[in-house]
Specification:
Layout: H1 2-13, H2 24-45, H3 57-66, E1 74-81, E2 86-92, H4 103-109, E3 114-118, E4 122-129, H5 134-137, E5 140-145, E6 148-153, E7 161-169, H6 175-183, E8 185-187, H7 190-202
Parallel strand pairs: 1-4
Antiparallel strand pairs: 1-2, 3-4, 5-6, 5-8, 6-7
Helix pairs in contact: 1-2
Length: 203
């Protein structure tokens, strides 16, 4: 179809100079318009032809940059402790130096944190640390594990973590001592811990 149209246009263009027609140029222009229209239609109709899509990344970035922390935004910080698997959650209002900042600016300040949510209502971030939580690191007690006197991190209960299993068997202790150990004997310092263990070992 296109080859016939091109041939026809060529024949119209080869008009003798002496017999110039005022219709030659208009016909040629109309023919070119029809030709380009046909090519454009064929490109749109062909599913295999991939046309460039508008770049949307910049628009998304612009939208994200419009979201900023306000004084009313809730700042939720979660600290996960890998050694005890506990998590502490703190919910506060942002300090003055964070008000007006965008996602990228906040990410630069909290570089070690993972920002999981960021909008004007709430900003949520998580930090994982290789240590014990405050409950486990600040508290110790003496209990029983596998019939031996054992030192635990934390407070008596199911979340306690074994620090050390001693070589002191509970079978050699007084019944009253065993009862205290079953309940969990809280110690306030390492010195008190050592004194208590030495006393049990001497018995």
């Amino acid at each position: 179809m296109f080859s016939k149209l091109i041939a026809k246009l060529s024949s119209l263009h080869q008009v003798k100079v002496c017999n110039k027609s005022i219709f030659t140029k208009p016909v040629l222009i109309c023919g070119l318009i029809l030709l380009l229209s046909g090519i454009g239609y064929s490109l749109l109709a062909d599913p295999n032809v991939k046309l460039p899509l508008p770049h949307q990344g910049s628009e998304v970035a612009k939208q994200d940059s419009k979201i900023k922390i306000s004084a009313d935004t809730d700042l939720v910080q979660k600290i996960s402790y890998s050694k005890c698997k506990d998590q502490e959650v703190f919910r506060t209002k942002p300090p003055d130096n964070l008000v007006g900042l965008t996602f990228n600016q906040v990410q630069q300040i909290y570089s070690g944190w993972s920002i999981e949510k960021f909008d004007t209502k709430e900003v949520e971030m998580t930090l994982t640390v290789d240590s014990l939580c405050r409950e486990h690191s600040n508290n110790m007690f003496i209990g029983i594990k596998n019939d031996y006197v054992t030192v635990f991190y934390g407070v008596p209960g199911p979340k306690a973590i074994v620090k050390e299993v001693t070589n002191i068997p509970v079978s050699g202790l007084m019944p009253q001592d065993v009862q205290e150990l079953h309940q969990g004997l809280i110690v306030q310092s390492k010195e008190e811990l050592l004194r208590t263990l030495e006393g049990m070992q001497a018995r």
